Amino acid sequence: MMHNKRIADIFDEIADMLELEPGDHRFEVRAYRRAAINISSMQEDVEDLLNKKGMEGLREIPGIGEGLAQKIADFVRSGKIKKYEELKKKYPIDFTGMMGIQGLGPKKIFRLYKELGIRNMEDLKDAILSHRISGLPGFGRKSEEVIGKGIKMREASKGRMLLGEALPEAEQIAKKIMESGLADKAEVAGSARRMKETVGDIDILVVSSMAGKVMDFASKLEEVSGTISKGNAKSTFMLNIGITCDIRAVGRKSFGSAMQYFTGSKDHGVICRQIAIKKGLKLSEYGLFDKKGKAVAGSEESRVYERLGMDYIEPEMRENRGEIDAALAHNLPKLVKLGEIKGDLHIHTDHTDGSESIADMAKYAMSKGYEYIGISDHTKSEYVANGMDDKRFMKYFDEIDKAQKDLDGIKILKSGEIDILKDGSLDLGKKTMERMDYRICTVHMNRNMDKMQMTARIVRAMESGYMDIWAHPTGRLINQREALQLDMDKLFQAAKDNGIIMEINSYPNRLDLNDENIMKAREYGLRFAVNTDAHRAAHMDLMRYGIGMARRGWLEKKSVINALDYASLKKSLKKA
Ligand code: DGT
Ligand code: CA
Ligand code: CA
Questions:
Q1: How far is the CA of 266 from the centre of ligand 3 (A)?
Q2: pTM over 0.85
Q3: What is the pLDDT of residues 139-160, one digit of tens each?
Q4: C or N terminus of the chain, fewer CB within 10 Å?
Q5: Does the CB atom of residue 265 touch ligand 1 within 6 A?
Q6: 92: which residues sit within 8 A by CB, 6+ positions away?
Q7: Which domains does the chain have, with CATH numbers?
Q8: Torsion angle defined by CA atoms of residues 384, 41, 507 and 451, in that order, rounded to the nearest 10 degrees
């Protein structure tokens, strides 16, 4: 994995620098950015791929042609890419370090370098502290504030990792421990099990008669970069991905209560223990005990809840947000499950900034057992994503029809991800929108509007009669960019009045709506679409994170439209 991340960063930096070069490099910029996404989400190290299959293997990566394959090979062999070295001489700036801070794109970063000599985060922080940025033409006080906040967000997030990175890592470690044959059980607990959007550290519980050997084994895993502490009962390891992992060995008879304790959340656990006390019992990670100290539950987590007089509470709900009262009253919602999802309604293809064709995306959806897929490429305002105008949309519809003709195992729906423009109008002609099965709308540009204006802009789109799904509603990027300024109550009400469906975007750095907003939207009786926003086929597997959010927001199957079968979905998408 070492190479993939570095190459992806380099490709992104080349794209950043090409945006600054004179002339029109939009096509190239897009190619580099797409390649960066694809390489960073690959399972296999490009070096292994190159060794196994040669250049041919590299060209099989979506979005990688001759030229980019050569650059990857150069990097693997020499640690260098000539084009990168050349550009870097001209732009000696740490783009990777500063990109992604809100308010900063390549152009602004370059201007900060030219005018103030800012090359990296340290320089940038200095400049903010000494208020040198607000004096620059085109920046101003407001933009200095935005950048300053962005830096704070980045620093506050240090150490908390996206669920989408931490959970697969945790599962991989648990799996390897099981495969070692040294343990009877190895399971993920903590915030990762609760599907919290970010994870502070990974927690794994094991049952083993050879706990010391399990810890030795774990210390040598390739995921582990160092040992912070190591004991038979508990060890803490530093992982290559940049967070730590606690591994605890517990007794077989305590496994259930230990899972209950170490899954948390802490607040949920505290209330559970109070309830135990009220019932004359004592709950700890070792078990649930009666007055005489006899265990009445412990090996199974579900029995712990049962003996406390509660229904089983799914990990995603354990946040002390009313779940304990609901469980005591046998009133818990029956949460939607990943396996109930019948399609994905937000998909990009190579018509705009996705990397695969309509047919390839549909085939992958089919292989996932989906009944339908909704293709939803960008509109023209999203020019960086190669967004389409009405004319190109018509051709794209024909392509969808053609793909549908060739595939009878899946229904392909026509859609588009339509920009909500500054004044609340939509970025596409009515005739074009009428050819769609449903329309996804969202804000991409002109994000810096105050709450009243931004809310009014979106309400106007909702009232247009053309908007069906509100995609990644708040526009936040976790650890990276703040949400738009929105009056959520007003917007949920307008959504209710206009039959608008809320998206839960499954992309790990979006997870938008988040759990709290989902709970709120649920009170308004709104419907939801859990989508992946896939830009390549494998992204469709990110659905589990959106479902995690939906479950954290207490959603049941009945309010998730893509858990409906095709006929019911079509009916549900008809405007009243
Ligand atoms: P994180 O790691 O910050 O994303 O969040 P968690 O929830 O994984 O927290 P962590 O790793 O500190 O601890 C794992 C679980 O262990 C936590 O959810 C509840 C339990 N736990 C840890 N410390 C305490 C404590 O002081 N009191 C109680 N009641 N439970 C605790
Ligand atoms: Ca944790
Ligand atoms: Ca921990």
A1: 11
A2: no
A3: 888 889 989 888 887 777 677 8
A4: C
A5: yes
A6: 119
A7: 2-156 (1.10.150.110), 161-249 (3.30.460.10), 264-328 (3.30.210.10), 338-572 (3.20.20.140)
A8: -40
